[in-house]
Each structure stands twice: as C-alpha cells, then as structure tokens.
Amino acid sequence: MFEEFFSSESLDVAKGVEIAMDLEKKSIEFYSEKSKNLESKELAELLKFIMKEEVNHLKQLESLKKSLMKKKWIGPEKLGKPEGPKLYIEGTSPMIREDSGDVGILLGAIRAEEEAREFYEEFSRKIKDENGREFFERLVEFEQSHYDLFDGILKSSEVKVEGGERL
Question: Which CATH entry fits the domain spanning 13-72+82-156: 1.10.540.10, 3.40.30.10, 1.20.1260.10, 1.10.10.10?
Fold first, then answer.
C-alpha cells in the first residue's frame, strides 16, 4: 500500500509523518464508530480504550510535525508505553459470539493495526535519526499490542471462518 512512498530515492519525512497522522485519524474514526455497534460491552470498552491511545499517538505526531519544522526529533518517551496487554489477564478477555457482527469489526481492527504497524516498521528502518527511529519503533509496539489483543479475543472466542478453520 505504501510502496510508492518507500520506493522514492530520498525519504520525505514530512510526508511520512502526514501518512502516520492519517493512519491514526482513520483508526480513531473506526474505533469511535464501531464501538457503538458492538454486541459485547466489554469489547466496546476495549475499542474506546484503544481509541484513546490512538488519540494520544495523533497528538504526539502533531507535536513531532511541529518539532521537525525546527529540525528536531522528539523521543519515544512522549508516547508512553503500551498499556493494552495489561488490560486482560489470561481468561478474562471479552468473549464474542461467532455469529455476531463483532467478528467483522475485530477483523477490521486487526487489519488497521497491521497496516499501521507495517508502515511504522518500514518508516523506522529508513529514519537515520536515533530519536526518530525509536519514536516510530514505539508506535510499532503499540500497534502490535493492539493487534495481539484483538487476535487473542478472536482466538479465545474460538471464532471460525468459512471452511471451519480457526482464526
């Protein structure tokens, strides 16, 4: 999806930050909208929590954009650390019914988190500044923790796809 951006000979950092901001905005919109449509109240609360993390990412990306105008990177400490994995102790994650619309929403969330994680991974590899690289590596950690949470909910709910295979 981002091949064109990454295939250019020189890295356009400002454009990369803009793409990152767009990814976060789309996630915020998705989680805001979908949290209202879930059957599982626990899952709705989780989506709201993840949305708050994405709002923080967007704010920090906006700060980064301003800081880069002064040719200065901000470090990953501004993002904090992923809290998602602490939300659920084994066996206490929200359960969803296989025949509910919640499955499609979770699959959409997984795709969004994977897309953002892949972008941040590639972007961090191309950034020469250590703070910049670490900033985007921290975003990778967040997106991976979100992905793992959603994937874990699907697995613990034993949701099956067409053909009877477990997700």
Answer: 1.20.1260.10
